[in-house]
């Protein structure tokens, strides 16, 4: 898909953003345990559809569940399926999914009494899972690898007879996602104690009937912050969002002040605005340990605005849909800039005049496609495999077309 930019005749836009994938998937696991929980505003993402379908098929006694590229579904289901007595199922995914580690979570479930077997390489999917009733109530787990391992354990802990205490080894990565999980549990009546050294989730067998409305996705909103940053001026209304959001990526509002964007909250929407003639810094430095999914967006914004950046706290990006650090370096350098990466950081030395008509590979990674798309406001470019956005934001291309980013297939 080739992208170019045509200045729209208006500078104010109203956009509805899809429901949060992270929140939706947490509540789907809770709904599986508490059927009288009703959900509205669920994400339209592939990942959420895959998880919903997987849980729905359990009634049909299926022998195999394929979650394709859905990393969240792989981790949440590894824990959830292991805790279902008398279940026997194979959990598998795409080729890339079978290259993404799952060993820490598998070992945790085994220590709790679960029965899981590797069908391929040790430490990686696919898995053969024999569901069992979990009796143990304590586990220790590294907290600096993936918050999703811990979240997966937290979400199934209410079903344990004695609940679960999770002892956290090392510094927590992506802490806001654990706070989000705790909030989801509490919202349905499950008691949770959160501490730096451990998390305690108490048992719960039944809840009162309840309906939860899922907030829109801040990660998806970040691409519109990037679009506005790359424009001279404008104002977008994005809905539906909460000022007290527990989504870690809500910090995009704070980060993009660096690019001259102001955020206001009004009646369930955010109004983001940029005045003409804003001066940008020559360099920014950010620790994204709590918000690694914003790294690609911020790096490309800096590329488009000729701003040097030093981003740290990115150690989890190597085990995402692709090695995002390597992918960012490769694709950004096609535009003429220079990028240095380590195992957990990225340094960008920008270039004032970017190369035109670059073809950007997406590596089956939805965030690569969406992060680079706003750059079309500055230079014509091509996004390869654009349909990958369906993983988290199926109507992304329709949304940015409204802003003047033209698409030629």
TrEMBL record:
Transmembrane segments in this chain: where?
Answer: none
Locations listed in the record: Cytoplasm
Residues in Enolpyruvate transferase domain copies? 47-400
Q: Where does phosphoenolpyruvate bind?
A: 21, 71, 100, 148, 324, 367, 391
Q: Name the pathway it acts in.
A: Metabolic intermediate biosynthesis; chorismate biosynthesis; chorismate from D-erythrose 4-phosphate and phosphoenolpyruvate: step 6/7
Q: Which Gene3D superfamilies match?
A: Enolpyruvate transferase domain
Extract the InterPro entries matched here: Enolpyruvate_Tfrase_dom, Enolpyruvate_Tfrase_sf, EPSP_synthase, EPSP_synthase_CS, RNA3'P_cycl/enolpyr_Trfase_a/b
Top-level division of the source organism's lineage:
Bacteria
Note the PROSITE patterns from the entry: EPSP_SYNTHASE_2
Q: Which UniProt keywords apply?
A: Amino-acid biosynthesis, Aromatic amino acid biosynthesis, Cytoplasm, Transferase
Annotated function: Catalyzes the transfer of the enolpyruvyl moiety of phosphoenolpyruvate (PEP) to the 5-hydroxyl of shikimate-3-phosphate (S3P) to produce enolpyruvyl shikimate-3-phosphate and inorganic phosphate.
How the protein assembles, per its UniProt entry?
A: Monomer.
Assigned protein family = Belongs to the EPSP synthase family.
Q: What is this protein called?
A: 3-phosphoshikimate 1-carboxyvinyltransferase
Q: What is the lineage of its organism?
A: Bacteria, Pseudomonadati, Bacteroidota, Flavobacteriia, Flavobacteriales
């Amino acid at each position: 898909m080739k992208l170019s930019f045509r200045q729209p005749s208006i500078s104010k836009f109203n956009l509805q953003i899809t429901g949060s994938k992270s929140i939706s998937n947490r509540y789907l696991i809770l709904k599986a345990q508490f059927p009288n929980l009703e959900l509205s505003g669920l994400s339209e993402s592939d990942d959420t559809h895959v998880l919903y379908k997987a849980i729905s098929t359990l009634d049909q006694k299926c022998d195999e569940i394929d979650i394709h590229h859905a990393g969240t579904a792989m981790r949440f289901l590894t824990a959830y399926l292991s805790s279902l007595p008398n279940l026997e199922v194979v959990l598998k995914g795409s080729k890339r999914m079978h290259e993404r580690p799952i060993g820490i979570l598998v070992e945790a479930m085994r220590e709790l009494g679960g029965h899981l077997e590797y069908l391929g390489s040790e430490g990686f999917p696919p898995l053969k899972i024999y569901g069992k009733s979990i009796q143990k109530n304590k586990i220790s787990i590294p907290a600096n690898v993936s918050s999703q391992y811990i979240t997966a354990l937290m979400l199934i802990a209410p079903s344990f007879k004695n609940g679960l205490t999770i002892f956290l080894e090392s510094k927590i990565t992506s802490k806001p996602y654990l706070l989000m999980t705790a909030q989801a549990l509490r919202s349905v009546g499950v008691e949770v104690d959160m501490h730096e050294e451990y998390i305690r989730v108490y048992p719960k067998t039944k809840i009162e009937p309840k309906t939860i409305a899922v907030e829109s996705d801040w990660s998806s909103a970040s691409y519109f912050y990037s679009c506005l940053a790359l424009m001279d001026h404008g104002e977008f209304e994005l809905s539906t969002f909460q000022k007290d959001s527990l989504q870690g990526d809500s910090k995009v509002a704070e980060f993009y002040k660096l690019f001259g964007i102001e955020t206001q909250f009004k009646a369930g929407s955010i109004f983001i605005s940029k005045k003409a003639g804003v001066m940008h810094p020559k360099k920014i430095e950010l620790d994204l340990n709590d918000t690694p999914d914003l790294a690609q967006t911020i790096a490309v914004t800096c590329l488009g605005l000729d701003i040097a950046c030093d981003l740290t706290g990115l150690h989890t990006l190597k085990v995402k849909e692709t090695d995002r650090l390597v992918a960012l370096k490769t694709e950004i350098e096609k535009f003429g800039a220079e990028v240095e990466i380590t195992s957990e950081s990225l340094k960008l030395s920008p270039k004032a005049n970017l190369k035109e008509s670059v073809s950007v590979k997406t590596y089956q990674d939805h965030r690569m496609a969406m992060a680079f798309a706003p750059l079309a406001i500055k230079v014509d470019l091509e996004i390869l495999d654009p349909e990958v956005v369906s993983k988290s934001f199926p109507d992304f291309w329709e949304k940015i077309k409204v802003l003047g980013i033209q698409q030629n297939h």
